[in-house]
Amino acid sequence: MTETFTADEMMSVAAARSLTNGSACFVGIGLPSTAANLARRTHAPELVLIYESGTLGAKPDRLPLSIGDGVLADTADSVVSVPEIFNYWLQPGRIDFGFLGGAQIDKFGNINSTVIGGDYADPKVRLPGAGGAPEIAASCREVLVVMRQSTRSFVESVDFVSSVGYGAGKGDRERLGLRGRGPVKVITDLGIMEPDPETCELTLTHLSPGADVEQVRAATGWDLKVVAEPAVQEAPSDTELRVLRELKATIEGDKA
Amino acid sequence: MARILTLSEAIAELVADGDAIALEGFTHLIPVAAGREIIRQGKRELTLCRMTPDIVYDQLIGAGCARKLVFSWGGNPGVGSLHRFRDAVQHSWPRPLEIEEHSHAGMANRYAAGASGLPFAILRGYTGTDLPAQTDSIKTVTCPFTGEELAAVPALNPDVGIVHAQQADREGNVQMWGITGVQKETVLASKRSLVTVEEIVDELTPRPGSVVLPNWAVTAVAEVPGGAHPSYAQGYSERDNAYYQKWDAISRDRAEFESWLDGEGLAERSAR
Q1: Is the model's pTM score more than 0.80?
Q2: pLDDT in tens, B90-102
Q3: Exposure string (b/e) for B169-190, b if CB count within 10 Å is 16 or more?
Q4: Is the CB of B27 less than 8 angstroms away from the CB of A53?
Q5: Cβ contacts (< 8 Å) between B153 and chain A: which residues?
Q6: Quick check: B103 and A133 CB within 8 A?
Q7: What is the pLDDT of residues B140-166, one digit of tens each?
């Protein structure tokens, strides 16, 4: 029998399962880092973790607390400068997966991590800013987005485009000259959305166990499209849950 | 050839009101003690450059030292927002803060162009985002060979570049290792530079993957053990994660922040 699990745990496990063994993944801190480290401890031991602080092939034995955590440098194949990470490794398209989050996302997968409120000069909320996201979204072969879902974060139109998903729809990435495929999956605590092959509009394809379509629609700020019969994701296995909880415990222990 | 100075001598001599300064460090080796000394000496009207302004820039902004911020990600890493930065942008407190915003790739390339003595850098970036519309420091150029449109960003050449490293020798040669971010580019791009170090040693022992800055490329070196706290110096200290979390509560409230300045002995000279 599978143990009980939270929606957040399902989200982390779903994100981890999206990463294939032997691929290279550009990892941000928080949910993406948790998912990538979980993947490396379960089905993808050869996953190459790349952090924007300059660590190539990091193999941390605990969850790093920041993208510049010493455990990343200690365990990496190589530590390079920040210009090198962006220019030599990210920009030419050598990296398979980019993992992004943000404050807002729209139905074409465009992400805002800059300002809330339409006036850039006089914002309602000033967010940290784009960081590495614009070029990660442009250059990785595929982008995975991990975000908790609510009508505040899943909006009809983002207040500021910090990184581009599919722009205004199909064909926009090609017109803009963006090289990667864009956000192939948006993984949330309620399910998974994927771009419609015809329109590139994010469409609900998978539900988390226990979530229903109405609940997901209610947490989405646009009229969400849903495939005919959304699949229900397989619940986390006992191993996935155990490894995930062990990982989380390493960070909580550190915070104490 | 780099001169060995005390921290307070170095800041007094190298940093002038109105300067563009860069205190760089990518989570690791952040020159926090140098930032505090800038507050203590009451420097004003500074343009602060840094890819990842964090706690020490929050303190400089809250203390009223900054006129402008040039950056690509402003947050408390692993914790959340920078509240003094937010208060300055959203409510002009303690004074308005002009911002010039980039992506990490843009900032890294601006330093690289600065270090290379070139007027600008090119990258395949920013396309389709709303960032170029907010600053005249992102434009496009056409590749003369292929016709491809690329982003162009101007070189960043701060008046003063300040970084922290593990070691220097008595001649002022510097060695740093672990995550070294854009520190080399910052020192080489800046008109004047200061490296604070954990320790001055008789002789530098070469380490794999280390960055060496020869003494003729550095203006001044100051020995400041623990000068990166609450960030860390690989081989010397661990990151003080509890401090980053505590900063969230201290910085959230103006009065709380001011009593922190007071308690640190920084309030007098930084009186706004």
Answers
A1: yes
A2: 999 999 999 999 9
A3: beebbbbbbbbbbbbbbbbbbb
A4: yes
A5: none
A6: yes
A7: 999 999 999 999 999 999 999 999 999
